[in-house]
Amino acid sequence: MELDCEEFHRWFDQAVYTFNLIDSDIENSGYSWACFKAQQSAELAIKGILLAMGKNAFGHGILKLYKDVSKIFKTDQNIENSVSYLDKLYISPRYPDAFTEGSPWEHFIINDAIASKEAAKNIIEFTEKVMASCL
Questions:
Q1: What number does CATH give the domain 5-134?
Q2: How far apart are CA 62 and CA 96, in angstroms?
Q3: What is this structure's pTM?
């Protein structure tokens, strides 16, 4: 199968760019935004894989997108755990009504930001491994 490496890089490079911004949010106590950026970087990376292969990459549910990727590439439980964790961080870090009381910034703590960054790192490293021919 011929890969569209140019399309892959449009998405993957944005994933890495977004991932690299997480530290500044952590340093500034922007833990909710760090979590959302981790989710976004993983979503972009997974979409990059699918789009490079000419597959559909519609939606924001990383777990669904990942299941499509897992039909093509060997995956493992660690990656699926990271995807599942990050999938839960699409809405809650951003919307004030995601929690019964308070705003997202009041609910997310440094440990959440660090865990989400680590999960995103797992996805990015997985993407680099399976898409090595485009790097």
A1: 1.20.120.330
A2: 22
A3: 0.96
